[in-house]
Amino acid sequence: MASKVSHINDPSARLKALCEYGSQVEVDNTLPTKLYFRSGRELIRMANVYLDEANYESAFILYSKYITLFVERLPSHPGYKSSPPPDLAEIKKKMKTVFPLAEEIKSKLKKRYIEEQREREELEAKRQAKVEAENARKRAEEEERLREKLAEEEKIRNESEEKWCREQEERYRELQLQEQRRLAQLEIDKDKDNNISGLNNERISVPSGNLDFIPNDLSNYMPPTDIGITTIPPVPDRDLKKNLTISDSSSPQIPVVNRDSKPNFDHFTSIGNFGGGSCNIRKVVVPTSIFSQFLKVAESNTNRNTETLGILFGKLSKNAFHISDVFIPKQHGTPDSCDMENEIDLIDYQDKYDLITLGWIHTHPTQTAFLSSVDMHTHFPYQKMMPESVAIVCSPKFKESGVFRLTQNGLNQIGSCKQTGFHYHQKEPPLFEQGEGVELVEGTSVRFTDGRK
Length: 453
Hints:
- This protein is α/β, with parallel strands linked by helices.
- The chain has 2 domains: 1-199 and 226-278, Phosphotransferase system, lactose/cellobiose-type IIA subunit (Methane Monooxygenase Hydroxylase, Chain G, domain 1); 281-453, Cytidine Deaminase, domain 2 (3-Layer(aba) Sandwich).
- The chain contains 9 helices and 11 strands.
- The strands form 2 sheets. Strands 1, 2, 3, 6, 7, 8, 9, 10 and 11 form a 9-stranded mixed β-sheet that branches. Strands 4-5 form a two-stranded antiparallel ribbon.
- Helix 3 (56-73) crosses helix 4.
- The two termini are 46 Å apart.
- Residues 123-144 are annotated as: Disordered.
- This is MPN domain-containing protein.
- Its cofactor is Zn(2+).
């Protein structure tokens, strides 16, 4: 199960966090010690349930809180030394079982945490290997893509260079032809000039005799060869093409590629968020039949305009409380109050069926369903001992019922109030509210036991 320490990987650190939470116990010295002895029994019951369900973290926390409560905290309570000897003897006896049991669970948790850490490391190694394999695949794909890109660029470059060379060769041949045609034309024109000159001029008589006046080297008398002659560029060497920079706008521009680079709230009965809990208040399941059943039991008192009360008991299962029993103790009531008598009957009943106290239920014969100042003071110790405890109020006159809890403001106000009887309390912020985390279910019966008979 997920827990508050599941994010801590180190097994020793996880156990330390669990032990620290198990030692978080506070005792209210204004409450009688008998309430803590009763809650101690319920701590053991809840811890045993968690243990049976193999919810070892929750079981360890409650066993640890039991030890902390009775070994470290409650002995400092002013009324502890005057506690009934049977209660003290019971605690001493239970400690002989709880201490070794807590150590045994701690050992199991340590082994489990170590195994979970090993599994996490294996999973992480597999995940890392998978990531590395995927990265390698992506790198190979990128390198292949780059090779293909470079090959395509090289192909384009070669084609461009070949095209340039062909154009230059074609241009050279064209210039040669042009020059040949020009020279041929010059010869034709020269012949024409000679013919015309021979026809129109008198014959020139060449003097006889020695021709030594004609110089042997006529080069100084030859016209400059660059007159009227176009210089033909040499055919480019194809080996030079790798040094070319193509600037012709008609040719594709080849990008320069660097081949060396690659793309590259806490309570002593609470388990908090441990053991699979998502919050400190566990869900309370209330059968809807409880309202009609209780009103039937209280009917005779209601007809006499007298309140009736009962104690809610239940079981813990799968981290939720299920109300299963209502015990009607001996009591005396008035139109607006009711007090319980002979509390020992209540404890005997609870121990007989191994039950957990989950609050109380009472009627308002002539009023609506709400918590009066007396009701809030009555409910305070229930909720102080067990945060999930609820107060159910049934109004037969107005045919309404409510499942209530004190708010945090209500706990603070009522806990510090020393007044008795009916008295005023501010209404804002609210002192009580409909029970959060209460689930009403149909089709489930509740066992009613009338201790008044």
